[in-house]
Amino acid sequence: xxxxHKEVLEELIDRSNQFLNxxxxxxxxxxxxxxxxxxxxxxxxxxxxxxxxxxxxxxxINQSMLITHQIPFIEEVIPHELSHLFVxxxxxxxxxxxxxxxxxxxxxxxxxxxxxxxxxxxNFEIPLRExxxxxxxxxxxxxxxxxxxxxxxxxxxxxxxxxxxxxxLNFLGRTEQVKK
Length: 180
Prior knowledge:
alpha+beta, three-stranded antiparallel β-sheet, 45% helix, SprT-like_domain
């Protein structure tokens, strides 16, 4: 990540933390409690925008989606995940039972506390990432293996065969970069 990207990321993390603190204040006032700020980590990957861990009182945020979508992402994902934490802590004690992650309590909290629609999934475009594929060959064609599968071959934990000719796949000693 270049210096420009690093500065953008640092600014977005700062804005996320500020928004988290404002949302925390609203949530505490709404329920009449004084819960402390959760730990927040920007290390989530893949298609998930954010994850809440109520028992650990932490939130994980997808860094590449944060960089791509910025303020709209912060304004949707932070309250969504914070709602999970608050609803779990407050209602699981009060109701002495299991609270559904996107159940009535969560939906009501999203609408009444934050004024947001209780959307279960996000609509953000998922940024493509560059991955390295390892080039293998059998008798009939070329195959591309992920780094995980390639490392299993190198560690003698797996070998792979072609589903068409059933021939063993042999590494050609080269890789290709693709957007995925």
